[in-house]
Hints:
By secondary structure, chain A is an alpha+beta fold. Chain A has one helix at residues 4-23, and strands spanning 44-61, 98-99, 111-116. The longest helix of chain A is centred in the N-terminal third of the chain and has 20 residues, at 4-23. Chain B folds into three domains: 4-111, no CATH class; 122-326, no CATH class; 331-357. In chain B, the strands form three sheets. In chain B, strands 1, 7, 8, 9, 10, 11, 12, 13, 14, 15 and 16 form an eleven-stranded mixed beta sheet that branches. The termini of chain B are far apart. Classes of the chains: A alpha+beta, B alpha+beta. At the A-B interface, helix 1 and strand 1 of A face strand 10, strand 11, helix 4, helix 5 and strand 16 of B.
Amino acid sequence: MEFFVPLMIGLVVGMVVLFSLLSQLKSVSQKHEASDYITPGSLQLKERQDRFVDKHTERQMIRQAPAPGGAPGSMPSGAPTSAHHSGVSGHAAPGGSILQNAPRPQQGGGLHIVDKPHNGK
Amino acid sequence: MADLIEYKCPSCGGKLEFNSAAQKMKCPFCLSEFDPADFLNSDDTLSEQQELPASPDAENGWTPSETEGLHVYQCQSCGGEVIGDETLGASKCPYCDNPVIMTGQFSGGLKPDIVIPFKLDKEAAKKALLQHMEGKPLLPKIFKSENHIDEIKGVYVPVWLFDAQADAAFRYQGKKIRRWTDQQYSYTETSVFSVDRAGTITFQNVPVDGSGKMDNTLMESLEPFDCKAAVPFQTAYLSGYMADRYDVDEQASLPRATERMKQSTRQEFAKTVQGYDAVNTEHEHIELTDAKARYALYPVWLLNTSWNGTKYTFAMNGQTGKFVGNLPSDKGKAWAIFFAVTAAVTVVSYLIGMLMR
């Protein structure tokens, strides 16, 4: 078993090297785009809007390592979590902000906090 | 009926060919050089549609199915018959090796708008093939030594060049994700944005191969060609090279150009959506307007080699020297390298793991 991980690493590196060397032999391929033929500076944006729509928060209980002897405060794995909701609606606030290039969440936008069950891993 | 043009040296009467190094018409006998523009009057008849010559006669031993799509020209130097298929536009007389140009293939509506003259010669193509085979460990060594060039030819390939403006509108969903933890919980806050972009972008000279004989993927691999170096079409540039007229028309070529322009439009608009951790396209509308097509001839060196009974085709951009062509691989060597690398990395990883314990 202790040899399994090194073997996997070896196989992955071997494949990467092999495909890299094989790709050197292939130089004929279809072009999917026409970026070489864009007139420089021709991109003109008539509309550029970034509207805040929604915000939601998920929280997940952190699994704490049980203290030796089952010390108080330790959280058993897979403990039930409680849902907590905060904020108003899940939709954009009326007249949501129109932002240029550097969008930021609008204060007062919808906020959900949803507890995510611990996966127990 | 004017069906063939041959360019003769005004000094000695020898055959004139377009010389890529000098970018002039050159006589190989007396070494005189002439500007292609000096021969403009040879193309006076191209504005009118010319009829192509008749198919070979059945009397000469040809069956009707064999002669379908073939045309017979008569070499003006030696009188020999030059037989070409229905798209052949320039070639050499098989008897006297004089360059001949079939003017009927480039007259009237078949006249190209522009041509990019060859900048690189046959020797450059041969050198490029050797360089193409260098530094490739998986290329069978025997391929380099045993393969021989069966054929090398400079071909003017017919190409449609499309100009268009893309009017586009996109709606994306952008997400900004923030994570933090406290003593009990880890939090993931996702802010969702609706991102709209609309505008225009312009494309110029998007090429689509207009020859049914030429592999489209091979032509696309040779891109880009620089259309700034293109000149108005003149048959003089074809002298000494092969040339074909188009057999795939602009309407049939347009979908390929459209597909490529749309993909680039998507990419360019997506680049304007910044500052998000994840972006999904929810809606797109792309319309190409003001589409125009021009007919051009692009210079390509084609090299055919054979090895182990398989034919390999290589091509070089006759303007930039970009060389493409798939090469065979040595499967035994590939497995040997794979196992050697795998074994070496496995052992090293194992030892590192042992040391770290």
